[in-house]
Amino acid sequence: MTTPMLQRLALFDALECGNLYWSEQIGEFGIETVYEHLFLGVYSTEKFGNIIARVQGFNADKAFTEIDQSHSTFLTPDDSRWPSMVNQLSNPPIGLLVKGNVDILNNRSFSIVGTRNPTPYGVRIAGDFAAGFVDREWDIVSGGAYGIDSAAHRGALVAEGRTIAVIASGIDLHYPSGNTRLFDEICENGALVSEVMPGVPALPHRFLTRNRLIAALSQATLVVEAAFRSGSLRTARDAAELMRPVMAIPGPINSPSSEGCHRLIGERAAELVTSVADADELISAL
């Protein structure tokens, strides 16, 4: 007999993360019923043939071996360590793969996001804010990418704090590869979090879907530098939809790296902050 854990892992393996249709199906009918319906012909083979075949051919032993070899833990909503704040999403994750310290996902956390091509100003600000919030006993969440994300993670580590990297690839792939050492350092006290199975590549749309997890894992989000059209703005929008505080750092008015931040501030989608004390006071007031 297939256990609820195996049913959930099969769906985790087969369904694209963040898919609103399947989130609604699972929310309405539950994991067990959706799993059974994929065997009973309830879903169209023409539309969902690949998913049906993947679930019906799911090899649990192989999947658990891959998870074990990636030194990660498959976390489900039934686990006491599950980060309950992600349940507020309209498309919550089916499960999460976590490498490192699984026990910190419900800690008080502050996300810092921004461009992959920051200015030295942005790098310094991201590191300073990360260290400042670590000093106030917050954990730092970001996306593990080059640029502002890496600066935030490093700022937390330099301050001897914990940081969580939510990545868009399989937890074993260490994408981007240039951050492999950083990911190893993160895992010593913090965690890597992924919504896909080991070996799954980081396709462009997965960066956007993982952004909602960065927002959901955090009590508040700060955008340090971002272009006018930036994935970081998506994280800010996701945080706003969850009614979490969103803040942005102002920059030079002629800097392309700050256009996204100025856009958020101008649209009243983010509060302007210029110091850690500003941000902390804003969060405390809400």
Task: Give an account of the 3D structure.
This protein is α/β, with parallel strands linked by helices. It is 45% helix and 12% strand. It starts with a helix and ends with a helix. The model has no long low-confidence stretch (mean pLDDT 96).
Helix- and strand-based class? alpha/beta
Unreliable runs, pLDDT <50, ≥5 residues? none
Strand-residue proportion: 5-15%
Oligomer: single chain
Q: Judging from the principal axes of the Cα atoms, what is the shape?
A: globular
Helical residue percent? 40-55%
Order of helices and strands: HHHHHEEEHEHEHEHEHEHEH
| Strand ordering within the main sheet | 1-2-6-5-4-3-7-8-9
Pick out its properties.
286 residues, nine-stranded mixed beta sheet, alpha/beta, single chain, globular
What is this structure, in a nutshell?
The chain has 286 residues and is of the alpha/beta class. It is 45% helix and 12% strand. The protein has helices spanning 4-14, 20-29, 31-37, 45-56, 60-69, 120-135, 148-158, 180-189, 204-216, 231-241, 259-266, 276-285, and strands spanning 73-75, 96-100, 109-113, 139-142, 163-167, 191-194, 220-223, 246-248, 271-272.
SSE layout and pairings?
Blueprint: H1 4-14, H2 20-29, H3 31-37, H4 45-56, H5 60-69, E1 73-75, E2 96-100, E3 109-113, H6 120-135, E4 139-142, H7 148-158, E5 163-167, H8 180-189, E6 191-194, H9 204-216, E7 220-223, H10 231-241, E8 246-248, H11 259-266, E9 271-272, H12 276-285
Parallel strand pairs: 3-4, 3-7, 4-5, 5-6, 7-8, 8-9
Antiparallel strand pairs: 1-2, 2-6
